[in-house]
């Protein structure tokens, strides 16, 4: 009997070994996609200009000439009442105050529902506004109502979440994939040292945004931090406890070899930070990831996490308002390559009709408490 | 329930024969897997890792205790994952709003009992199949939670709220709760009339009635207890991390049901033990961790879990047939 159990166990061990793949032998980091990558320049140099694309936005028809005149703008985010869109709304108000001749109000659904959002936009068109700012709940479903606004001579600018390009004039893009990738990898290299080994906690290997980021991170790391060593990627859905368990497993598996963890979702990052904290590995295992500030405050304050990567939603709303004003004033027209955006300076046009907000924002001990979302 | 006096040894042998097979198998699997993975990567056997596996998944085992009772009684509940999500949000909101810690801990227990007992009453007295009732409740809880919270997370939880961070004589609280709840439930189900009534109700409700068991009342009691265990699971689940997600953990009910079924609880009702379901919860957690340790693609996780369920159900049915062929002489 005993011999049989031993045999079974040995057989199981062999089977497991056969199953196992040598992670490092694979050329591609698990969880990345196969699309073409465009890594940014190393260091703090300016972003390399992409191949110019023809303007592909939509223009309002017979818009009244309000250049330099007071305008009313309505902002319709995905939903209202949450910290993130409170922050974009604050940015919009800040910019409106600064510009002077812009009157802006935020009015949107209390749930992130596209049908509700369409109603709000439709009402704004009826009540007569000069401009509509939006963050789409659905890029395709929102298009008809935005096109209706354009056809009535209303200016339309998107931020945070795009619509199909023809349905708006401009879109303020907060996070091109290669920008996030660069910020993440640079932060990791800084914290672990150039030859650190790290693992990745993602949602699933096929989640589109995460897969894009991971592929861009690999491309950027190969170009600018070639000695950084990827160990493996684990899936954790968007589940808090599973993320925590997976991160803990990685810490236990690699021990001292593991110098850093990337959290690819706003769930995985705080859960990884908690895992590192509970394992007593703060300062030994760096956590770098995408996350919202509120969930990360405890770890940033304890010093366990040094860099939380995201864009600054206040800047995002601020930039969208400047883009709106410039579009109304005729200072931003199809074919232009940049736009002035107040304190943010000159922002570049990318992908035909998108305005690039700039490098991602790093939340740290000094600034994280000024955000509430 | 016979009145024939039996000696201790005979009783324990009978007990072993009747119940231990699945549990023994699971215990062997838990140990066997640990040894096998240890061969490939010895770090798996580190105390810290084994403890983390238990710690991080105790809430599933705790919830599976109630689920096992529900399934043994001949019912099913697919609302438990959503309920845990709601209870976690309620508990966390209370804590953040400044309620005393005891209130933040006790309200989810009471609410869990209430919601589940109500479902049990609908199942028992209106004779609506449990899968329909709990499917309805699943939608209500899931939709309600998103509507109320807007998906906003609960952060800034007070320090004292974190029950899962406490320990009893060095043993972490989640493990203490898991072991204590399993032991108490197992003894109660085995040795008391009200506990045996669950098996009777699930095995054959009509026969149970003739033997003086009230199947309706038993079902309501089982659901109420299931609510209590869901509440306990919530306390462990919600207090482990510094954030409460405010959305229902997707697929949690399936993980819990899987633990029960793999634990040897017959999906047809009437048989199974909570010792089995706790061991199965541990085994499933161990597999998930092991896959990372031996670099198996996570795509295999679901397939393995599915294989495990099929194997157990088939084994259960074969065992039933054999027993039937032997004329139930156990």
Summary keywords:
heterodimer; A: 373 residues; alpha/beta; Rossmann fold; 2 domains; eight-stranded mixed β-sheet; 10 helices; 39% helix; 17% strand; elongated; B: 330 residues; mainly alpha; ABC transporter involved in vitamin B12 uptake, BtuC; two-stranded antiparallel ribbon; 12 helices; 2 strands
Give a brief description.
The complex is a heterodimer of chains A (373) and B (330). Chain A is an alpha/beta fold and 373 residues long.
Instruction: Give the termini separation of chain B.
Output: 14 Å
Low-confidence stretches of chain A: 21-25
> CATH first level of the largest domain in chain A: which class?
Alpha Beta
Total domain modules of chain A: 2
Return the average pLDDT of chain A rounded to an integer: 88
Shape of chain A: elongated
Overall structural class of chain A, as computed from helix and strand content, comes to: alpha/beta
- How much of the residues of chain A is beta strand, in percent? 15-25%
The CATH homologous superfamily of the largest domain in chain A is called: Response regulator
The order of strands across the largest sheet of chain B is: 1-2
CATH architecture of chain B: Orthogonal Bundle
Specify Rg of chain B, calculated over alpha carbons: 20 Å
Strand order across the largest sheet of chain A: 2-1-3-4-5-13-12-11
Flag low-confidence runs of chain B.
1-12
State the helicity of chain A in percent bands: 25-40%
């Amino acid at each position: 009997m005993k011999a049989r159990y031993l045999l079974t166990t040995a057989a199981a061990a062999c089977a497991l070994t056969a199953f196992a793949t040598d992670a490092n032998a694979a050329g591609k980091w698990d969880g990345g996609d196969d699309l073409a990558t465009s890594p940014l320049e190393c260091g703090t140099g300016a972003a390399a200009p992409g191949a110019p694309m023809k303007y592909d936005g939509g223009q309002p028809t017979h818009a009244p000439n309000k250049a330099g005149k007071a305008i009313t703008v309505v902002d319709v985010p995905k939903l209202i009442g949450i910290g993130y869109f409170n922050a974009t709304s604050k940015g919009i108000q800040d910019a409106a105050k600064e510009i002077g001749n812009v009157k802006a109000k935020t009015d949107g659904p209390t749930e992130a529902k596209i049908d509700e959002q369409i109603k709000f936009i439709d009402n704004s068109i009826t009540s007569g506004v000069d401009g509509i700012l939006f963050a789409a709940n659905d890029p395709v479903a929102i298009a008809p109502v935005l096109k209706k606004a354009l056809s009535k001579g209303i200016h339309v600018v998107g931020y945070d979440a795009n619509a199909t390009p023809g349905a708006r004039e401009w879109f303020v893009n907060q996070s091109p994939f290669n920008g996030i990738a660069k910020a993440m990898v640079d932060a990791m290299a800084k914290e672990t040292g150039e030859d650190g080994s790290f693992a990745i906690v993602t949602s699933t290997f096929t989640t589109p945004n995460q897969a894009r980021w991971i592929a861009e991170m690999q491309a950027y790391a190969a170009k600018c931090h070639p000695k950084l060593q990827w160990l493996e990627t684990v899936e954790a859905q968007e589940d808090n406890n599973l993320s925590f368990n997976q991160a803990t497993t990685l810490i236990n598996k690699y021990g001292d070899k593991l110098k850093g963890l990337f959290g690819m979702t706003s769930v995985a990052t705080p859960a990884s930070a908690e895992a590192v904290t509970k394992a007593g590995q703060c300062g030994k295992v760096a956590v770098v990831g995408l996350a919202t500030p509120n969930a990360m405050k405890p770890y940033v304050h304890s010093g366990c996490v040094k860099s939380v990567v995201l864009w600054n939603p206040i800047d995002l709303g601020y930039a969208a308002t400047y883009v709106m004003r410039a579009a109304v004033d005729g200072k931003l027209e199809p074919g232009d390559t940049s736009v002035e955006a107040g304190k943010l300076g000159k922002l570049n046009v990318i992908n035909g009709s998108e305005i690039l907000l700039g490098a991602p924002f790093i939340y740290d001990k000094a600034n994280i408490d000024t955000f509430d979302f | 329930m016979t009145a024939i006096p039996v000696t201790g040894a005979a009783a324990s042998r009978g007990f072993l024969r009747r119940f231990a097979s699945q549990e023994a198998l699971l215990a062997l699997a838990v140990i066997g897997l640990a040894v096998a993975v240890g061969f490939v990567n010895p770090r798996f056997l580190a105390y810290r890792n084994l403890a983390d596996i238990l710690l991080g998944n105790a809430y599933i085992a705790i919830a599976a205790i109630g689920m096992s009772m529900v399934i043994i009684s001949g019912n099913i509940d697919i609302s438990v994952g959503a309920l845990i999500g709601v209870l976690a949000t309620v508990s966390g909101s209370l804590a953040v709003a400044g309620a005393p810690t005891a209130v933040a801990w006790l309200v989810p227990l009471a609410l869990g009992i209430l919601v589940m007992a109500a479902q049990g009453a609908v199942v028992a007295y209106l004779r609506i199949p449990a899968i329909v009732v709990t499917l309805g409740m699943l939608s209500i809880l899931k939709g309600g939670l998103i509507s109320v919270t807007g998906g906003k997370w609960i952060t800034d939880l007070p320090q004292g709220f974190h029950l899962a961070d406490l320990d009893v004589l060095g043993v972490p609280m989640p493990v203490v709760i898991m072991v204590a709840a399993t032991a108490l439930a197992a003894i109660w189900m085995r040795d008391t009339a009200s506990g045996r009534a669950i098996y009777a109700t699930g095995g054959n409700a009509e026969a149970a009635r003739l033997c003086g068991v009230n199947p309706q009342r038993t079902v309501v009691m089982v659901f109420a207890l299931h609510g209590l265990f869901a509440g306990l699971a919530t306390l462990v689940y919600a207090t482990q991390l510094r954030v409460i997600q405010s959305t229902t953990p997707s697929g949690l009910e399936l993980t819990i049901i899987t633990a029960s079924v793999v634990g040897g609880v017959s999906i047809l009702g009437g048989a199974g033990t909570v010792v089995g379901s706790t061991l199965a919860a541990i085994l499933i957690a161990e597999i998930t961790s092991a896959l990372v340790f031996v670099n198996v693609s996570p795509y295999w996780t679901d397939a393995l879990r599915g294989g495990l369920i099929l194997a157990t159900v088939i084994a259960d049915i074969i065992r039933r047939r054999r027993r039937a062929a032997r004329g139930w002489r156990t």
